[in-house]
Each structure stands twice: as structure tokens, then as C-alpha cells.
Amino acid sequence: MIDIPLILASTSPRRRELLAQAGLTFEVVVPGANGGVNEDPLPQEPVQAYVERLARDKSRAGWHEAQRLGLPAWPVLGADTTVSIDGSILGKPSDASDATSMLRALSGRQHLVYTAICLTDGQSWWPATSISQVHFRTLDAGEIKAYVDSGEPFGKAGAYGIQGRAALMVQHLAGSYSGVMGLPLNELGEVLRAYATQRHPK
Fold it and tell me: Structure pTM?
């Protein structure tokens, strides 16, 4: 991993943990703190296009916020993760009933987890996307209720966090574990190398 200091435009503690795990130097800003980022899917918008749009919008909003705060002129990283099953987007659950419905839909089935990242210096963009396949074992009503009652599903796409108790639900994973967590480290390395090559060609 190239040690390029960056600004993370995200409030996700999982993304902070993964950047720290990778040994990167970073600051954190709230993307769109002065206006927000519209996270509603556009009509007929494909799932991959949706997450890639949000990652770019968050990096752009994070860049403006970093400038407003007078932070170092480091590149800004935006990211977005969503879960999809049968082509439908499962975002963050709004309440316990919503979380329960999502987990019932995922029970015993395979779904896709899309995580898009986008690095910007305010003028250029370096995007990448990770798509992982996750298969849940069949969950009974009692364990779904217990998981929802634990509070872990809230604030997480698809109503679960693979790094937490939901690890017990995953029967098979094909793809990026860190991507399912919210920040695909392999793709991040590719983006940072592309940034370094473009900014400082040999």
C-alpha cells in the first residue's frame, strides 16, 4: 500500500478502522455537511451506477468541506456500499421492522454487495468498484429478532455488519471481505497507485 495521506469523506467507523489497518495517514470530514448528498436512487438507476454516483458525490462534497475547514490539500476519498438482491437495493434499515424484512429477504440466499470508492484532488477522479457475492444460511425468526434487538443492523446497508455478529450468518463469501465491510483495500491500493502515477510520473 502506498502511504499517501488522504481525507476520508465518511462517518463510517468501519472505514476508519480499515484505513488505520492499512497504515494510512488520514483526516475525516463529513461529506456534504453544508448541504448533504442525495442518497435516493434515480429512476431506473442500476445498482452499480448508483453506488458509483454516490462515491463520486461524497468525494466531491468531502473536498469542498475539507477546503472550507482549511485542512491539508490531500486527496479526498468518498465511498458507498449497498446490498442488492434480485436487482433491488437494500440500503440502511429505517427501523426494526425494516431490518427484519431485509434479513428475511437475505435468509438462505445469495446477494451482492457493491462498494464503490472515488478519490479526487478537486480536479481529477480515480474511481474503483468492488462487487462481492455473499450467501447467508437460512435464518430462523428467533435469531433474526435477536440480531435486530442487538442494534447491530442499524446504520448498515442490508441490515448487517459482516465484521460483527452477522459473521455467524455467512455461509459463503466470494469477493472482498473489506469491500463488504465498506472499503475494499485492494481497490484502494489500485486507486492510490493510479493517483501517485498521474501526479508524480516517473
Answer: 0.93
